[in-house]
Model the fold of this input.
Amino acid sequence: MTVKAYGTLAGDKLLEPIEISRRATGAHDVQIDIAYCGICHSDLHQARGEWAGTQFPCVPGHEIVGRVAAVGAHVSSFKPGDLVGIGCIVDSCKHCEECEVGLENYCDDMVGTYNFPTADEPGYTLGGYSQQIVVHERYVLRIRHSEEQLAAVAPLLCAGITTYSPLRHWQAGPGKKVGIVGIGGLGHMGIKLAHAMGAHVVAFTTSESKREAAKALGADEVVVSRNIDEMAAHIKSFDLIVNTVAAPHNLDAFLTLLKRDATMTMVGAPASPHSSPNVLNMIMKRRSIAGSMIGGIAETQEMLDFCAEHNIVSDIELIRAEQINASYERMLNSDVKYRFVIDIATLAT
Ligand code: NAP
Ligand code: ZN
Done:
């Protein structure tokens, strides 16, 4: 089946309309008509070849929502018309230690939604900036939000789970002081989720213009991280910091804000490395720097259900497909509140 998509032919080229093929719906597959797809900063890193190994043409997109169009003969948990989502994972080995416990995100053979090897044409996966996708039922998520909220649900599939998972793992909740660094797509979800979990939330931003907006998202306090005095007021006080920044920066400035035994979890994945932190800042208070990658399928479903129950969606700016390139530039300039979402219907017009 041939479908319309938006992709790029090389790292230094703009995205443009292209046609791609999708596999026939297998016995365990769900065929999905994509309604909306969010734009993650990872899409930009990948489309521009900033991370090693991008294959071209590249069709990004792993914040996918839509309706089931058809299901394979052995699929019993989904039916045509259901509202569903696809996040960053479309396959994994299904039997390793990680898959057994629902941590497919850490399976060595995890297949990401785009740019990962697959038997399908053209030999690697193509993402959600496209009209349809066909995915094994194990990796399909159920959406319990209302139809009207659907576009704003899309970013939960990556930005939502990528912040939810470390907040749960490091037990954000009542009595905990949690910092969220960078108020972009991931960071704004981190603020909403940590707030809903009952933590005291402090947002760190480089953008003075986001100070008031961050409070509206649920931050109890906002720190402009370029202001040394504002930073110093929070020294040795955090139980957890989730760092979403997409560019190299000074990690010591945040490490020193952690309490004894506390952790800063890195989720931002800049194209070039951070300079090494001063290990003394870890040694002195037994502090840790950790990392976290998206979340498993069961946890992604748990996050979607948590968000439906607490009426949490992303704050989005809905765009047409031909605005994707301009949106990438605006995202680079931190000029988005807080996620661009593509109206996939505009691919056809
Ligand atoms: P985004 O929307 O562009 O947000 C990143 C934010 O970081 C910006 O809005 C800005 O916030 C801050 N920032 C940007 N440049 C900065 C700089 N030079 N110094 C300090 N702060 C800066 O990006 P995103 O979609 O949230 O993604 C963030 C990162 O996470 C990307 O690297 C992405 O690839 C990665 N990611 C990782 C995972 C994972 O599984 N670990 C999953 C998805 C994405 P302020 O204006 O508030 O400062
Ligand atoms: Zn993403």
Notes: The chain has a mean pLDDT of 97. The first strand starts at residue 2 and ends at 7. The radius of gyration is 20 Å.
